[in-house]
């Protein structure tokens, strides 16, 4: 993996906020998890667990599946960075 940075943003009200997303920082060096009070996606927030990965929204009906999709998107972002090194 390259030396890129991948930002994961999650809203405190999101169904994903209960997950220990900070463990992604250990699983993937170069990942930074940012939590904020609100990401202004209230309509989606109340319906689906979601997070942003490098500005791309990742969501699913099920929090566990969403977590797996977040990890897939992180890996995809790193693969993109590796292509341009």
User: Residue ranges: pLDDT <50 for 5 or more in a row?
Assistant: none
Biggest sheet features: 4 strands, mixed
Physical arrangement of strands within the biggest beta sheet: 2-1-3-4
Secondary-structure element pattern, one letter each: EHEHEEH
Question: In total, how many beta strands?
Answer: 4
How many domains? The number is 1
Distance between the termini: 10 Å
Polypeptide structure, described:
With 85 residues, the protein is α+β, with helices and mostly antiparallel strands. It has one domain. It is built from three helices and four strands. It has a four-stranded mixed beta sheet. α1 links the parallel β1 and β2 (31-36). It starts with 5 loop residues before the first strand and ends with a helix.
Structure keywords:
85 residues; alpha+beta; four-stranded mixed sheet; 4 strands
List the helices and strands and how they pair.
Layout lengths: L5 E6 L11 H5 L3 E6 L5 H4 L4 E4 L2 E4 L3 H21 L2
Task: Write a short abstract of this structure.
With 85 residues, the chain is α+β, with helices and mostly antiparallel strands.
């Amino acid at each position: 993996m390259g030396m890129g940075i991948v930002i994961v943003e999650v809203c405190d009200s999101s169904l994903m906020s209960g997950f220990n997303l900070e463990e992604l920082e250990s699983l993937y060096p170069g990942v930074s998890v940012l939590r904020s009070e609100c990401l202004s996606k209230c309509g989606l927030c109340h319906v689906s667990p979601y997070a942003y990965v490098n500005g791309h929204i990742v969501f699913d009906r099920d929090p566990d599946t969403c977590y797996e999709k977040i990890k897939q998107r992180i890996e995809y972002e790193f693969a993109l960075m590796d292509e341009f090194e």
